[in-house]
Design brief:
The protein contains 15 helices and six strands. The chain is mainly alpha-helical.
Amino acid sequence: MASVPTAESWTDGAAGVGTQAENLSAGLGVTEWLALQAGNFSSALGLPMTSQAPSQARGNLTNQFVQPSWRIALWSLAYGLVVAVAVFGNLIVIWIILAHKRMRTVTNYFLVNLAFSDASMAAFNTLVNFIYALHSEWYFGANYCRFQNFFPITAVFASIYSMTAIAVDRYMAIIDPLKPRLSATATKIVIGSIWILAFLLAFPQCLYSKIKVMPGRTLCYVQWPEGPKQHFTYHIIVIILVYCFPLLIMGVTYTIVGITLWGGEIPGDTCDKYHEQLKAKRKVVKMMIVVVVTFAICWLPYHIYFILTAIYQQLNRWKYIQQIYLASFWLAMSSTMYNPIIYCCLNKRFRAGFKRAFRWCPFIQVSTYDELELKTTRFHPTRQSSLYTVSRMESVTVLFDPNDGDPAKSSRKKRAVPKDPSANNGCSRRDSKSASTTSSFISSPYTSVDEYS
């Protein structure tokens, strides 16, 4: 992606050449939505956009925003760190989930999709955008230009709507636990639908991508057929669909879920399973809230930058605008590296998985407890019955007379009084109504305990 100010800062001694360069830059936009270049924003406000190269030579153009070597080195280190942590961290997350049967839950399948989209964007787009921002020169050919304009929107859409799907799934599991959960097939259909919608939203970026070879420079941009207004409208729609709308949905669902989980425990209940699952649910929801808030914070400055430079185009010539752009873009791209860190810090099973992945390190020790966290419980059912179902089962104890050696005398067997079903579940029977309420809140015939761990 061309650096924000660079496109508008190429000057020439001849009158009118600078204006031509600005007009051309109005169409520059490697990953226009992700790059959000100042020239593009200026074009959105009515500057003429041309697809023709300026007729005059550009040999005497100078870049007013060339950075010193030490600053380029620092930015390169910062962006390189993001790419390394995002790619390897998210690949480890995918391995932890797919390689361990106990981790293959509905929520975690969406986390796989989230990790894949984040790792892909970090690997294929971040450094390329950074190089284009520094040099204002496209080195990667026409096909990659199309991909570069197309894929970031696709990846961000897949990421944010994977989080939204998790929020809706958590909402259904906690607010209405007796309803059937998403099956593995349904989960795959939802994930596939997310990617199809992402492709459709980003397709115009691929369709209208162009490269232009100029004397001394090659540019990659998106040329909209109806000009700047269409370009501006498209990007506003993208911001609404990949930021405002999903965050609104997640804000509402997690607010309701939070009130339900942290609004107070059921009075008089002493069920161990209730307390265990309540804590597990709180941990999962807390982790996902941190993920969503991190995403929102990372991308907010980027969208504010887009709006401000679109409204106040004179900001594009400000001396420090390139540094502001690189900082806001770095923060947005850094959202791809935080999720693995959050999972490791807030989830004991992911933490055990990361220990296994890094057990070759001398300071990492994998305990027996960590190994057990990733193994399926031996006698743990895949579908957990509700307390109401368990309460209808009678526990029978058969007593034999030790002096009775004759099988024919087995008629002397005595049937013991059925045990309290709630006692088997670790709950007190002092309040059966409360226990029944607890059952509908914490579990359903369609929910596995592993969903909440």
